[in-house]
Specification:
By secondary structure, the protein is mainly alpha-helical. It is 91% helix and 0% strand. The longest helix is centred in the last third of the chain and has 28 residues. The N and C termini lie close together (10 Å). The relative contact order is 0.21.
Length: 57
């Protein structure tokens, strides 16, 4: 996995989790869903990069 893509994936996961938790505390379910989506996008990016590593490695 390229270092840049790995960093992007981890950043999206952490930011999404933070947004989701803060939104739940504040009672804003729409923003919580957006945070969950961001976290899921980071996880998907990580899976994609790991798959690429397996194919090329």
């Amino acid at each position: 996995m390229s270092a840049t893509e790995k960093a992007k994936a981890r950043t999206e996961q952490v930011a999404g989790k933070a947004v989701k938790k803060a939104a739940h505390v504040l009672g804003n379910e729409t923003t919580a869903a957006k945070g969950a989506a961001l976290e899921a996008r980071g996880e998907a990016r990580e899976v994609k990069e790991k798959g690429k590593d397996r194919l090329t490695g």
